[in-house]
Known about the structure:
With 584 residues, the chain is an alpha/beta fold.
Amino acid sequence: MKKDLRVKQTQTMKKVLKYIKAYGGYLALSLVFAVVTVAAALYIPVVTGQVIDHILGPGQVKFSVITQLLWKMGIVIAVTALAQWLMNVCNNKITYEVVQDIRREAFAKIEILPLKFIDGHSHGELVSRVIADVDQFADGLLMGFSQLFTGVVTILGTLLFMLGINVKITLVVVLVTPVSLFVASFIARRTFSMFMLQSATRGEQTALVNEMIENQKVVQAFSKEEDILEQFDEINQRLEKASLKATFFSSLTNPSTRFVNSLVYTGVGLVGAFSAMRGVLTVGQLSCFLSYANQYTKPFNEISGVVTELQNALACAERIFALIEEESQVPEPENVKVLAEVKGNIDLKHVYFSYTPDKKLIEDFNLSVKPGQRVAIVGPTGCGKTTLINLLMRFYDVDSGSILVEGEDIREVTRQSLRESYGMVLQETWLKAGTIRENLKMGKQDASDEEMMEAANAAHAHSFIKRLPKGYDTVIGEEGGSLSVGQKQLLCIARVMLCLPPMLILDEATSSIDTRTEMKIQNAFAKMMKGRTSFIVAHRLSTIQEADMILVMKDGHILEQGSHQELLAQNGFYYELYNSQFVV
Length: 584
């Protein structure tokens, strides 16, 4: 288990380095400025020691020399500050460019992930990966750049300066150093799995919060507030324990290394004092050496903190890379065609499909639809009506068989050209945050305002839009904000009417609209569907009586097929459905 974690950690680090590699120029500059910062900072104790050595006693202070040394010290401090500022600029540039690249790639990945993955994962957990986990990764990466480089350079620089002053005392420092490194690495190796658990639990909590905010009305309607609070508290307690455990163990690193570093400082002080008494060192050199000993041990504290923070960063990075590396939807072949001159010929041949292998749904499904036909799909819940729509739009690919549009297998044409050929109104409405105008023109951005208003009139949405504070320029929130469900559905209908593609899919398109408006919408639909191949999913059979073909589905099969009158004459399953709605 530990070996697997180390391997995973190493692989994640390699992936991070690939992103950093693109900013090698800034990395090189950061290293240069780190060297300048450390070299200048390490030169200050030398000047300080020289100042001390020129204070010989009462009345023997060499003010002229000390003044020159103080000027020199001031210039060195200014150089240190400037180099450190430039180094931080480079580090911030690298960190946030890398974070931007990762977020862009993660979001682009979500756009091409198969719907099976999106449907199978909590949306809040995915949001947590792209937002919270990347933020945590950025914090760790920035700390790594800010303190790791300068820490390593400081250690090497102080060793060189100390060797220049006294080799024996430097050996005392070097001999105790491995203990500090061992303590830091021992603790760091054991915190990675703890931070992984913390990130996963945080994602679970984000998912619950996201789900409850989106469905607060349902929660309150069923008085489930207490149950949800208990569920939240349970996850919150697990997060608290995971966070406390990870933070506690990672925080042991700093005091442990500080203890070891205090031993180093004590050893240098004792050996240096005896050396000064024997005349091997001057008091100024001893002061300089003690300063170096302190500067030498300080980076170990910082690096130990960086290492533990990097465990958290790598744990978060591993989750976001897992998303980025998820298998994308089936890629389009090299010789993919663009669907053109679509008239509405659709053929489904021996189609088999199921969401899970152990639960069969659609088996040996065959259907042929001619241009301009209105095809209604009815049947009990779970019979495969919406699944058929998902297959037509290629939101899911068939397991076997084929779906042809104008004689072309939809797997051999671009998804964009296929989906542009359909206009779709679903029972579940979707509107983005923005103006009414932006939402209506989503599918046809070059449409004129006259065309937009004509479509809104046809959908009977114009009257309520004009009553809004700013009409078509009214800004609505996510998912339509304060608009009623019926108003949102009217906007979705108007959006499709503005595009008017050659094929239409209406999945319970009028389910949230009052009866009077529905009759007007049906008339608008009748005009819109004229000459266009249309698929209508409906539970209210009164809305599909004029359809050219009605498919009665059950358990993924076409049970009956024909016009409304033909199906009634058969006295079969459709006859029973119809009578259950209209016969008292």
